[in-house]
């Protein structure tokens, strides 16, 4: 599949006259709990020709594609990506720290990671995950709970809790969040991950009551302590310098 992904990204470069600086996998495959029928969520940052950044007229700042063989692609222009990074956009941080990298050119990915670490705003990250969690949390009461919904509820709760406790960017790989929980619950989750690997996206599965209680407990802690998180402002000059260097 990697060859197909690289071929499609090369087509995108030619079609749109851009250079892809880096491309990664996002979503459940990057998180480590994909289903057999999970899409490939390809995310990338690209750079246009210099003259387009100097134009009076705004250019399109994103590229999307969907193929018949489950390649779901979404890319952002370098300027858009840099502005979102300055806001600690949690979705984009997930791209940056994905464990699955398809393209990595010119040191852009590493430079953006460093900017992300040095300028991370815990409030922005926490409320992204805590707000997302509300919709998934309600499904925990369902008698027919999809494995996908359970893992989304658990991951968003864990990521918010990580930020609450560490004030750093949460790991992308789900199992790297296990330091938040005890060994027994980690083993339960590993068994569910193994089960999900053989269950389609729409599949249901019995989930241990202890795990449901664990997620609810973490969500309650997140809600009770949310006002204790400190804000951090981005160093605007660092982002300006990075962007100019990328264009030169």
From TrEMBL:
UniProtKB keywords: Transferase
Pfam families: RlaP
Domain of life, source organism: Bacteria
One example GO MF annotation: transferase activity
Protein name as annotated: Nucleotidyltransferase
